[in-house]
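Structure ticket #2291
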Amino acid sequence: MTKINKSHIHLTLSHILNDDPDIALDDIRAKVPEIKSRIIVQDTLVYMEEQQILMNPRLLIRNCEGYTNYYMIARVKSWDDLYRNVICRNYEFIDSALYIRSWEGNRLAYLKYHNELQKEVDDVLEEGPLEYYEVIYPQCITDEKIENIGEPDEKSKIPADKLDKRFDWDYDTKQVFEWLSINYRLNLTRIGKLLDISRTTAKRKKDLVKEFVHVHYPTYIQSLYSYTGVLSSFHTEYPGFVKGIFRNLSATSYLLGNQKRTLCHINTTLPGYVIRVFEKLEAKAIIEDLNVEIPVKNWNRIQEEYKLGRIPEKLFWMFKRKKRKRIELPGSSFT
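Resolution: structure written out below.
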């Protein structure tokens, strides 16, 4: 294998793919002079995928008429309570979930869902629309600490993201979206065969899906399982400043919320440091009413379908290689 095992190259490839999720391997090679051939590009991406440095792209359907993203934080009795009484009863509407074990027997759940849940959730602590969803792309090959947080120059507001479109996908479009969510780089001919439609139809449906979604490749430069997720919720009039604070990390993170409440999910090798940063931000009154926790379990529908044997493993791999070691599909998605 002619891979390049250099973290700065991995970071560069992540940026290229996030700039253009559909980019061809030859076009990637043209953007990285250090890589001398197409096969080295491919082998390096295979390595990144196998080591869970680069993850399958995540697709988030943007708010529009007929489709609205929401979040909820609720108290639950246990993971089984969350799974059986919340997730299973709202299976088609919950996109992802996090489970948190706190002190004194408190068990919390974070839910990201769309439209309305079919079964009400008891003991809701916090909920609201997700008016914006910002991806914080990694800029470093290792997590770097900030010596001086500084002060924001002025108040900021992240504008609500809403498409001027109506969400009225037909069955085939929804099915294409599901396969793209499993593997965004899945060959269109393969998608056509899976759905018994032509390649031309599959391409037309993919083009329609792209009009409605944000696409990004989650990246973990030190490999996924080196990182811990830190989930926080707070009020701030400086969301742009908070986002900038965490640009010096080495994994994909997220800032999302609405004008009343901001959530931040930071993937880091320094969870204690990140929590202290949030506490310093609160002490400076840059953020208020801070809640911060470390989730211990996560769930998403693709992970569930894979575990149930409904999705063949070979369809997850984005980059071709003849032999693959079996993967344990992570539930790392925050979307």
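Closing remark: The mean pLDDT is 93.
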